[in-house]
Design a protein that fits this description.
The complex is a heterodimer. By secondary structure, chain A is an alpha+beta fold. Helix content of chain A is 25%, strand content 21%. Classes of the chains: A alpha+beta, B mainly alpha.
Chain lengths: 405, 173
């Protein structure tokens, strides 16, 4: 008894440490099956996050009052700039939508399934784990808002992480630079796939890329969709450094596109839909049409000096004296589809003895000459003096911006 | 009756904290540790809950109270991370026990002693955490003496101010 009394403190210390080590061992063993410490975490989160919510609310409200009612300097200039930006983006959107139409048709032909984000939930970052060993954040949305574990968390700049634990009114988000995170990633140009991992120092590396591959610094890294959490094609970041790694793999350092240390608001992807790609068209797409669009088209012959104002449609049939009537064009796969932008077909000159391509960019259907000659290509003659846009949509030029006053 | 202990014949005072202070100060420390790094990015270098554990332990000078306080604050801190609960709990239990045991033997009322004590216990805390994280949980952690030492100095500087604040709420037994 005397010994017990003398070493009482030490015995209690050993007992407490033993109990905690035992608890740790149980958690490590059962880490994938269930969450035995959920109750403790809920209590801790419940004790700390209300204060964080309150402070964030006060901060946001104060900031809103200041920015929305008092500090409006430069708003007019910013408005002008944004309008100009909208105009530029509208033009860009036309080109992109044409490319997207074409991609959808190709995907439909190949029976591709596409993933897209159909529902997101905006959330505010209210706290962190407070530990350098646990790079995670708390957001102000939880189970009550439809948040569930393993949902992707993104910003407009790039991906952020995934929901690890969802509590009633808050959620814990594991950042991509935590060492226990893993994201399926793909390099934009080389299409090399790897796994994005965090390090203990809070950096992000792309692993499992073979050392005999060439990865230039600056290349963009996108999500590959292979992890089942992030939809394919979201921006992750850029390669900053490439070096020899362990074993047969490269050590690729990636700088995340989203600034993970200054996050204030994020989007939780609450729903990802997967559906068969369907082209937006009325007629059935044929493989030949798709292939034809992939090929570089021949632009209208530039008007010569004596034919100023002549449109491509006003070009007569190539066979002199031919009285071939215009033939109705086959149904379009979709209006105004564009050839791949990689080929600048507008600079191609038509070959001798061939007619220019029709405005749709598709090869015309050959038709026997009415006079019994060789088959020639004919096009519907358009009466309208308005020039028809060429098959390949030219890249929109940036409009002249108004200089800010 | 005041509890007194003796070190080389010199009387050492023992303090206590009121129940609200005992509950709210650790909660505030854990809260600030979770909230401030979002606004002040370098704040993640500090370990405010650890400073509170050392402050409480050295003031109370009771190993039992020290290890229990350290364990509870550590578990609370663990619960906010995604790591298994017990990593900070064990580390802070050891620190709480050690700081209170050392507090009995040393005079920790002056700023210089507190500064050195905080550096020492910060490093002890990190060593224990590192060993458990690598040995038991299997985390891949890198150890860097310069980093730990500089972090220890930063924490010790902050600790001097935190202990001054704690001095205001502690009560003589």
């Amino acid at each position: 008894m005397d010994v017990l009394g003398r070493y009482r403190n030490l015995i209690v210390l050993v007992g407490v440490l033993f109990a905690q080590v035992l608890g740790l061992a149980v958690q490590v063993k059962r880490t994938t099956d269930s969450e035995p410490t959920r109750l403790i975490r809920i209590w801790a989160v419940g004790a700390v996050t209300p204060l964080e919510r309150m402070l964030v609310w006060v901060q946001t409200s104060t900031g809103n009052v200041w920015h929305n009612y008092f500090y409006l300097r430069g708003v007019r200039a910013e408005n002008r700039s944004l309008k100009a930006q909208i105009e530029r983006m509208s033009l860009e959107q036309v080109r992109i939508s044409q490319d997207a139409d074409q991609a959808r048709r190709l995907q439909a032909l190949l029976a591709f399934k596409e993933q897209f984000i159909s529902q997101t939930k905006a959330a505010q970052v209210i706290g962190s784990s407070g530990s350098e060993q646990s790079r995670s954040l708390y957001i102000d949305k939880g189970e009550n808002d439809g948040i569930k574990p393993d949902m992707a968390v993104i910003t407009a700049d790039g991906i952020v992480g995934k929901v690890l634990h969802a509590y009633p009114s808050t959620s814990l988000v594991l950042l991509i630079n935590d060492q226990s995170s893993g994201v399926g990633a793909i390099l934009e140009k080389s299409r090399l796939q790897g796994i994005l991992k965090g390090t203990s120092a809070g950096e992000v590396t792309l692993e499992k890329v073979m050392s005999d591959e060439t990865v230039p610094p600056g290349e963009m890294v996108l999500t590959s969709g292979g992890d089942g959490i992030f939809p394919k094609g979201l921006l992750v970041g850029r390669v900053t450094k490439v070096g020899a790694g362990s074993d047969l793999f490269l050590n690729i350092r990636v700088r995340p596109a989203a600034d993970l240390s200054r996050l204030e608001e994020v989007l939780v992807v609450t729903k990802i839909d997967e559906r068969q790609a369907q082209p937006e068209q009325t007629g059935a797409a044929r493989a030949v049409d798709i292939l034809a669009e992939r090929l570089p088209s021949v632009p209208p012959k530039p008007p010569e000096n004596g034919e100023k104002g002549a449109t491509p449609e006003s070009v007569p049939p190539t066979t002199p004296g031919s009285d071939a009537k215009p033939k109705a064009m086959p149904p379009q796969a979709s209006g105004g589809s564009a050839a791949p932008t990689a080929v600048n077909a507008t600079k191609l000159a038509p070959a001798a003895g061939t007619a220019p391509m029709p405005p749709s960019g598709k090869p015309p259907v050959p038709k026997a000459n009415a006079s019994g000659g060789d088959a020639v290509r004919v096009f519907p003659k358009k009466v309208s003096p308005e020039p028809v846009p060429p098959a390949v949509a030219p890249k929109p030029q940036a409009p002249v911006q108004d200089s800010p006053q | 009756m005041a509890i007194t202990t003796y070190t080389s014949g010199e009387q050492v005072e023992v303090y206590r904290f009121s129940i609200p202070a005992t509950v709210l100060i650790p909660l505030a420390a854990v809260f600030l540790q979770a909230w401030l790094p979002l606004r002040i990015h370098f704040f993640s270098v500090f370990d405010l809950p650890l400073l509170v554990v050392i402050g409480f332990a050295t003031a109370r000078r009771s190993p039992l109270a020290g290890l229990v306080t350290g364990g509870l604050i550590g578990i609370l801190q663990d619960a906010l991370t995604h790591q298994p609960i017990g990593l900070y709990g064990i580390s802070k239990t050891v620190v709480g026990f050690g700081a209170s045991s050392l507090g009995i033997k040393l005079d920790v009322e002056n700023a210089g002693a507190r500064f050195l004590l905080t550096i020492f216990f910060y490093v002890v805390h990190e060593v224990v955490y590192f060993m458990i994280a690598r040995g038991l949980v299997g985390l891949h952690m890198a150890w860097s003496w310069p980093h730990e030492f500089l972090s220890g100095i930063a924490n010790a500087l902050l600790g001097v101010f935190v202990f001054l604040l704690l001095d205001r709420v502690k009560q003589r037994t």
